[in-house]
């Protein structure tokens, strides 16, 4: 019931500034204004509650994502090792090419042009 007490305090503060201490009846405008201010205050409370819920959900998503950081690091390391092995294999063995006439494959040394 904190929502109701907050909206009531907002309404009472907004009314207290305009009253001159008399016990006069409120006009229809003032009654509607109070009702609308109360509705707005309750709507703000709902928005705040939903934003808090969204924040908690986003924190949970980030926490799940952080759990995969070690897996991602392992795959990155594997990818780097595989790329390095492939580069070393090409540099050491030369380029393998297909002979245009016979269709057989041969390897040319790195220093010799193709």
From TrEMBL:
Biased composition (Basic and acidic residues): 96-114
Compartments where found: Chromosome, Centromere, Kinetochore; Cytoplasm, Cytoskeleton, Spindle; Nucleus
Residue segments, region Disordered: 1-27, 85-114
Signal peptide boundaries: none
Pfam families reported in the protein's UniProt record: DASH_Dad1
One GO BP: cell division
Polar residues bias spans: 1-12
Main location class: nucleus
InterPro entries per record: DASH_Dad1
Domain of life from the UniProt record: Eukaryota
Keyword Repeat set for record: no
One GO location term (cellular component): mitotic spindle
One of the record's GO molecular function terms: microtubule plus-end binding
Keywords, ordered alphabetically: Cell cycle, Cell division, Centromere, Chromosome, Cytoplasm, Cytoskeleton, Kinetochore, Microtubule, Mitosis, Nucleus
Keyword Disulfide bond found: no
Stated family: Belongs to the DASH complex DAD1 family.
Name of the protein in question: DASH complex subunit DAD1
UniProt lineage: Eukaryota, Fungi, Dikarya, Ascomycota, Pezizomycotina
């Amino acid at each position: 019931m904190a929502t109701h007490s907050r909206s009531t305090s907002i309404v009472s503060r907004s009314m207290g500034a305009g009253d001159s201490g008399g016990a006069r009846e409120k006009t229809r405008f003032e009654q509607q204004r109070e009702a609308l201010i109360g509705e707005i205050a309750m709507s703000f409370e709902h928005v705040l509650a939903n934003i808090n819920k969204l924040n908690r959900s986003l924190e949970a998503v980030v926490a799940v994502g952080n759990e995969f950081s070690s897996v991602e690091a392992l795959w990155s390391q594997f990818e780097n090792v595989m790329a390095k092995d492939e580069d070393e294999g090409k540099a050491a063995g030369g380029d393998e090419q297909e002979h245009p006439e016979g269709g057989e494959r041969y390897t040319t040394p790195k220093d010799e042009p193709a």
